[in-house]
Amino acid sequence: MAIPTAQREAAAFLCRLAGSPPVETHISAVFLGRDTAWKLKKAVAFSYLDFTTLAARHHFLLRELALNGPAAPGLYRDVVALTRRPDGSPALDEPGEPVEWVLRMARVPAEDFLDSIADSGHLTPRLARALGRAVARYHAGLAPLSGIDHPASLYSLAAEIRISALAAGLPETETLAWEASLLAALKVREGWLIRRAEQGFVRRAHGDLHLGNLCLWRGEPVPFDALEFDERLASIDLGFDLAFLLMDLELRGDRASANLVLNSYLAGSGDFGLVGGLPPFLSLRAMVRAHVQASRGLDAEAGRFLAAASGFLRPAPPVLIAVGGLPGSGKSTLAHGLAPRIGAAPGALVVSSDVLRKRRHGVSPETRLPDSAYTPEENRAVHASLMAGAAEVASLGHSVIADATFLDPVHRTAIEAVAASAGVPFLGLWLEAPLTLLENRVAARGAASEPDPSDATQAVLRRAAASLAATDAPAPSGGWPRGWHRLDAAEPSGATLTAALLLARGLAQDLPQGLANPGAEPC
Questions:
Q1: DSSP, residue by residue, 77-144
Q2: What CATH number has the domain bearing residue 66?
Q3: How many C-beta atoms surround the C-beta of residue 300 within 10 A?
Q4: What dihedral do alpha carbons 355, 361, 362, 364 form, nearest 10°?
Q5: pTM value > 0.70
Q6: 277, 195 in Cβ contact below 8 A?
Q7: ∠ at Cα 380 (378, 386), nearest 5°?
Q8: Residues 465 and 341 in one domain
Q9: 449-469 per-position pLDDT tens digit
Q10: Within-domain flag for 513
Q11: Please, are residues 393 and 275 in contact by the beta-carbon 8 Å criterion?
Q12: What is the pLDDT of residues 405-448, one digit of tens each?
């Protein structure tokens, strides 16, 4: 949409200031200078906003500054007036009666926006994890809201999306079928949504948290351009806020990154219960994209998003997988390799004893803990948290991978009981490798390019190996747990993952209970 006639003089001035034409959306124009960007809100009105008055544009620019400034200090600078000098020429931030208002920001290089990074194939696992942590920190800084009827808001939003989808030309039969399935999914979660609000998970969130509204700022991913003109659409469950980012990654074909973002977010927030709403949350976000693409005449893209919106409401059945073994056997590597390939979008949640321990002590997963964090009492508390987390996720219908040593038979029995209680299939995977190889891996952790949450040393490994041998002495050679599938962790990680996938997908029922074939082709 073109800049309204009444604002063209202001736009021409900003264009000269920036030295180039603006980047435009239907509601704003951003003028990009060498190190500064100026945002002008267009004097337009739609069913969901009205920027036609100067006072309204000033109000919403101030609101945008207030919402976004704390998340990225220095990125958003101030709101300044465009005035006239005595000779009638326009000026910025000078005395005089305002004729327009602009939001002044720092210029961010185009290659530092997360959508550009993803499109160029540079969204690395490290950056995906940082992205999940950044959103968790952002959400942690938001105050819980009271008095929000979130189920009613979502029902209303579904109706609005259906109206917009039909107006945009999406097929009526498929659109109405989507709405019926979406309403059914929300109906069975009404109690869950109400409890989430009571627990403080409904907050004034970002509201538009897709990859294009995240950028690198001072080397770290940060959200920007939060939805400033509709409090209702941004006063939502944090899971619904996160779902836009997860959907965006999923529909770009990057489930691995989506899964890393989810797991990193939950490692930082501890909000395992969030997964209970992912099917309808992802579906709503995809359907918004579907009708937007249809309104732009991009029918193929619109159809793809419509199919995804319906598909999210048919999630794969949940499973519970436990990955055990001695330190250095590659449990976390296998768990995170399996996660995006298991269960409903965007893949399984990894509940890790190492990460839970770090969270209990208020430190990042990479921070080393003192010996006092590994007392018998602490160990019991960590494993209780692991069981509770796995139980919560599985009971909410989402797949979960429990990542721990499981050296104690009591813990193995407990995790199997969690699966039975939740009524989900269980698969136990036990990783084995020669002790000398495990010692070398543990010793090399400090020099690894990817940080490892485990604090285990070679001494800890040796004590664990001795404990396992003593505890499981009657078991077959090497002592892997009865009922669990033994995987050769001495093989390359890709081969171990292939073998685990065959078991997890039910394609290897005839494999012997002993060593699974690590050379099998992936399914």
A1: EEEEEEEE-TTS-EEES-SS--SEEEEEEE---GGGBHHHHHHTT---HHHHHHHHHHHHHHHHTSPB
A2: 3.30.200
A3: 7
A4: -40
A5: yes
A6: no
A7: 105
A8: yes
A9: 566 777 666 667 777 777 776
A10: no
A11: yes
A12: 898 889 999 999 999 999 999 999 999 888 888 878 777 775 55
